[in-house]
Amino acid sequence: MQPYGTKDKEHKHTAYNLSFAAEGKNYTRRTDSKKSVNATDFIVGAEMAYEMNNQKVKIKSPQN
What we know:
This protein is mainly beta. Helix content is 0%, strand content 42%. A hairpin with a 2-residue loop joins strand 2 and strand 3.
């Protein structure tokens, strides 16, 4: 995860670029700056569950 952008009145939370590999492909997705994300939940090399539907991705860390 890499922080992206800055917080302001419209963007209450820090957005992150999240890179991951799944099914032999590499992906990078950006988190929503209107929702809170705990970046420390995502540990490099750790397994995580995901669901992809066109341009939307749901990713869950082992803790949640």
